[in-house]
Amino acid sequence: MSLRADAPATETEVRRFSRAERWVHRTTAALMGVCVLTAACLYIPELAELVGRRALVVTVHEWAGLALPVPVLAGLASRAFRGDLRLLNRFGPHDRVWLRAALRRDRRHAARPAGKFNAGQKIYAAWIAGATLVMLGTGLIMWFTHLTPLVWRTSATFVHDWLALTIGIVLAGHIGMALADPEARRGMRTGSVSGEWAEREHPLWWR
Fold this sequence. Notes:
The chain is mainly alpha-helical.
């Protein structure tokens, strides 16, 4: 965290993400976007007819999916990234308070205590990580058809297709929440946020 201790919160800049963390996020987002767009071109008839070249779309989809874990694995070389992974993996009493307030639709900041990441962000990170691994596993089964029996391939296709739809919906929600919070987007774009935002949205991290 980088700040000037003698400055008021409205003037203080807080260092939120390192350059490595921002590149992991951007690269992962780009690969996920390619996966979602190519999947849409494969499963929505209107888009399939518009784009054509199905074999090329399939190839791009497969390699983008295979590359999806690479940015995270490369990010493990960064101490800051590893530190944030540890924070995302810890669920404390204040996170349960945050969740109860969210379920009650209590939007008061005092009712939603959060560290560097709030409970919703932690749940999203865990879910998308697990979903990505499932998509990778089922995708490999579908790709290398000669290595598994028919029942495995059928089951993998079913899971892959429906989980892809779920991921699309969850990602749309994630993007919608990001669009509603310009300061959070600035933190991911530049690495810094205002002290006022940090104090309001993540008081346990700021303090």
